[in-house]
Amino acid sequence: MSGDKTYSLSELALSVQSQLNKIYSGAYWISAEILKLNHYTQSGHCYPQLVEKKEGKIVADLKGFILSSRYKALNDKFLTVTQKELSDGMQIRFRCKIGFHPVYGLSLNILDIDPTHTLGEMTRLRNEAIAKLKSENIFDINRKTFLPLVIKKIAIISVETSKGYGDFKKILGASKYNSLIHQELFPALVQGDAAVSSISRVMEMIKIRKDQFDAVAIIRGGGGETGLDCYDNYSLSKLICQFPIPVLTGIGHSSNLTVAEQVAYKNLTTPSELASFILNGFEEFEVKIHSSAQRLTFIRRTIIERNKNNLHRLEDGIGKAAIRLLRNEQNLLSSTGSKIVYVSTHNLKEKKYDLTKRIVPALDQAALKSTDGHSKILDDLTLRVSMGTDEYIESLSGWLAHSEEKVRILDPVQTLKRGYSITYFKGAPLRKTSTVNKGDEISTLLSKGEIKSKII
Amino acid sequence: MAKKKSYEDLIEELEEILSKIEGEEIAVDELSSKVKRATEIIKHCKKVLSDTETDIEDILKDLSKNE
To answer: CB contact, 8 Å: B55 with chain A?
Structure first.
């Protein structure tokens, strides 16, 4: 062993460097995740930790290097295309040369970055988050929570000093409804990678006090289009979906809607618009109140007036009807009175006439003829009685004679005398030949004598 | 005045009195008492209407004050 040649560390390092330079002389496109960007603002250089993960485990881990001047150019290009700055956790495709430094070791010198790859990756992640939320049937459930027309108690998630929150407060502050709105700020980072955990933490705090708020407003503004990928995060979006009260977003950007904005109860483009939305609720409510007041006035007018008119009609009607009834009664009374007077007078006149013209003369005459009349009537009666008796006796004698004749004619003896005979069979008069049979004995009664015979 | 009866009941009673007087179903002896009763009801109903109107006005005024 002691005979083996010993190299210095630098000799080895330089040898490795030389070999690597020979083998990896070109530049290569590599796909990796920036685990940590490690951008030093002072020097401007960037030393990203590049990894590849498989099932969550790091299977490759290499250092990267971006020169200060190149970093700025690459980051600007990246920002233009993806609306995002290079940051931790980002999947990138980059072109690099492999370098080896005896002191700093192996590193990938990044020459170019392909932003479209990251953009595609971001879209893929966003679509994945949406698909997952939909498959869990929670994508639109925050929109099913109840948002009152007048939002009076708002939990605000924002950065106290941010421009967006400033705009929001300014608009509400200038409104006449401001004193009616209770706002409580829950400070949190609202952009960048830390935003997911920061927003999630305050949302959990608000959830505990959910009964004290009508809605949650996530406000961000003035940060440009960068740092918004947190709003595509699945777990934050899920938290918004399942939040027990409405979540309103006003995160101020003009690019495609993030997942969080899509699942929120209501998304407003900017914090200012979110403030206006809240104020609109108050205005709309005020209009409704005015309209109700007008309707009440109308109801008052119509109902009260209608009842007044009805009452007036009844008052008038009852008065008139009562007077009419009284007049009718009076008329009836006076007409009955007149009738009584007329009838009485007329009757009196008739009685008087009867007395003077008919009864008195008749009485006079009757009185004069009284004696003569009575004797004549008696005579008449005597005559009528005697005449009647004679006629009666005569009629009775006639009837008796007629009856005797009828009895006589009907006697069978008289019939026999006229040559008729009566045949008896078994002691009873024989009326039909069918009553007797051959050999029967019959007897025939004549006017004088009897003949016995036998049927042959 | 029978306070227990509702406004509608009283109006119904008035209508009945009117109908009976119009139909001459009321005896002359009863007429003055019926008209007296009707007058009392009308007075009461007018008061109810006027009070209600005042109440509504007050409520509406109150509403506009709070705006």
So the answer is: no
Q: What is the DSSP string of A197-215?
A: HHHHHHHHHHHHTGGG-SE
**Domain boundary residue among A285, A309, A330?**
A285
Strand A91-101 versus strand A105-114 pairing type: antiparallel
Ranked by mean pLDDT, which of A301-310, A341-350, A440-449 comes out on top? A301-310
ipTM: 0.81
Instruction: State residue A373's pLDDT score.
Output: 59
CB contact under 8 A, B21 and A325: yes
Answer yes or no: is A97 within a domain: yes
The CATH code of the domain that includes A119 is: 2.40.50.140
A296 and B60 in contact by Cβ < 8 A?
yes
Residue (of A303, A297, A329, A191) closest to A253 by Cα position: A191
Chain B positions in Cβ-Cβ contact with residue A310 (cut-off 8 Å): 11
- A184 and A106 share one domain: no
The nearest CA of chain B is from the CA of A300 a distance in Å of: 7
In this model, does residue A216 exceed pLDDT 90?
yes
Helix axes B7-22, A305-353, angle to 10 degrees: 20
Please state the pTM of the whole predicted model: 0.53
Q: Is residue A149 part of a domain?
A: yes
CB A72 within 8 A of CB A44: yes
What is the number of structural domains in chain A?
4
Same domain? A184 vs A165: yes
Residues A311-347 have pLDDT tens digits of 899 988 888 888 888 888 888 888 887 888 887 788 7
d(CA B53, CA A425): 123
Domain boundary among A70, A90, A124: A124
B67 vs A308: CB contact, 8 Å cut-off? no
A328 touches chain B (CB under 8 A): yes
Question: For A237-283, what is each residue's pLDDT tens digit?
Answer: 999 999 999 999 998 876 678 899 999 999 998 999 999 999 999 99
* Pair (A13, A58) in one structural domain: yes
Token reading at A331: 């008329």
Mean pLDDT over residues A111-131, rounded? 89
> Are B53 and A322 in contact (CB < 8 Å)?
no
| Dist. CA A161–CA A224, nearest whole Å | 16
Give A321 to chain B, closest Cα distance, Å: 5
The domain of A446 spans 415-454
Kindly indicate the confidence band of residue B64, based on its pLDDT and cuts at 50, 70 and 90.
low
Distance CA A54, CA A60 (A): 9
Q: Closest chain B residue to A320 measured between Cα atoms?
A: B22
* Residue A179 maps to a domain: yes
In chain B, where the domains are located: 7-65
Mutating which of B6, B8, B14 best tests the A interface, going by the most A Cβ atoms within 10 A?
A: B14
